[in-house]
Amino acid sequence: MSTPDWAALRADFPTLHQDVNGKALVYLDSAATAQKPRVVLDALQDFYLNHNANVHRGLHALSMRATDSYEAARLRTAKFVGAADPAEIVFTRGTTESINLVASSWGAANLKKGDVVLITEMEHHSNLVPWQQIALRTGATLRYVPVVGSDAELGLDLDALDRLLTPEVKLFAFGHGSNTLGIVNDAADLCARARKVGAITVVDAAQTIGHQPVDVRAIGCDFLAFSGHKMAGPTGIGGLYGRKALLDAMPPYQLGGGMISVVDFFETKFKPSPERFEAGTPNVADAVALVAAMDYLDAVGREAIAAHDRELAAYAATALAELPGIRILGPRPGQPRAGLVSFALKDAHAHDVVTFADQDGIALRGGHHCNQPLMKKLGLPSSTRASFYLYNTREEVDRLIVSLRRIVKFFSGV
Ligand code: 7TS
Predict the structure, then answer these.
(1) How many angstroms separate the CA atoms of 248 and 246, rounded?
(2) Spatial contact of 209 and 231, defined as CB atoms under 8 Å apart
(3) What is the CATH number of the domain that holds 191?
(4) Is 279 a member of any domain?
(5) What is d(CA 210, CA 32) in angstroms, rounded to the nearest whole number?
(6) What are the tens digits of pLDDT across the range 187-197?
């Protein structure tokens, strides 16, 4: 594997090359949304300039071309996540919609009183609230795999997981990568444990999909949810991988055009998956532009991106540890860390940290990161997060540290 020319790649991202508050922008918020390379923006523009039409409806040239491009995007996405059959890819708005689809459709059809839905304490609200609410609606019980350990040595309690995996567990949903802790869970191992009791598995790959190889067959999951905008693609497009047999047995989630085979005044026959889950006009342009993002990431190499992001996060974690009164959250030593670091400063609220860093042109995220129950458990009202992607550099981490020293000085007077 040849080492990518990271500096040359950085030039592909137009948004990065601007000043914010009089300083060169340092964008360290890719866990919220990644910047887009020009090829993605070009693909989006090319679709609207040259090919725009609705799909699956028309017999005219543009419509057939748009349909071909949309279905080619499905095939490319299947390949990107290692799915055998493009019919196992449902296009959605992103991770949130994908998980809501499984909870509302599979959950409503299969869960009942006495069943258990198992999730973990490190879930993003998108992989928590849908399960909590479908459990309330169906009478199923929601249980949590605990997060254990101290600040910089956190992880799932795998012994507790095995104890919790009883035959009553019908579904186990977990995050592949935590957006707050930076922990990357061993998804294949977690799915193998769940399979022993016959539980369906749902993997939230929002934080990993654009940062490392993700292969649904190697993981052995039943469902996997992801967002295009976190993998250098457009907003408003993402996907759900689902095993074909499961998808075909599930009732539709939304109803309307495009997902029916026959409609009568009083009954309707639905198409098989994936169309049955794509009611209405789909997001054709963004699906097509997502292909450009996938091609771009694969040309760089997802292994290389993972190594780059993790190296930067480790570099940042080591430098941050020198700051007085800092609490750094993270995985146990030896466990992989995603390309992000969350931390809390003793004297400064995360929102103040983010505001001060912004004055220095640095984009961070501060708050509860859609992880309210976890933050409560860790005894933190909020944390600040720096997240990295293929376009970030060590020099940017150095600028972050200089800025944070100024912030610590201001708030603590040290
Ligand atoms: N799951 C995880 C682990 C996430 O990090 C996010 C978004 C989602 C699900 C939801 O993804 P969406 O594309 O449907 O919104 N996480 C973040 C974040 O950390 N900061 O902003 C969004």
Answers:
(1) 6
(2) yes
(3) 3.40.640.10
(4) yes
(5) 12
(6) 999 999 999 99
Q: Which of 244, 272, 298 is the last residue of a domain?
A: 298
**Any ligand 1 atom below 6 A from CB of 127:** yes
Domain residue limits at 223: 42-298
Tell me the mean pLDDT in the region 256-270.
94
Residues 47 and 133 in one domain: yes
343 and 320 Cβ atoms separated by less than 8 Å: yes
DSSP 177: B
Burial class (CB in 10 A: 0-12, 13-18, 19+), 91: buried
From the alpha carbon of 94, which atom of ligand 1 is closest?
A: 14
Nearest to 288 by CA among 73, 50, 63, 52: 73
Query: Is the minimum distance from the CB of 171 to ligand 1 under 6 angstroms?
Result: no
Domains in the chain, number: 2
| Ligand 1 and 94: CB distance under 6 A | yes
294 and 305 housed in the same domain:
no
Radius of gyration of the chain (CA): 22
pLDDT band at 56 (very low <50, low <70, confident <90, very high): confident
Question: Does residue 33 contact residue 387 with C-beta atoms inside 8 Å?
Answer: no
Query: Looking at the structure, do residues 288 and 305 belong to the same domain, yes or no?
Result: no
Per-residue pLDDT tens over the stretch 108-135:
999 999 999 999 999 999 999 999 999 9
In a domain, 332, yes or no: yes
Domain boundary among 298, 314, 346: 298
Catalytically active residues are 370
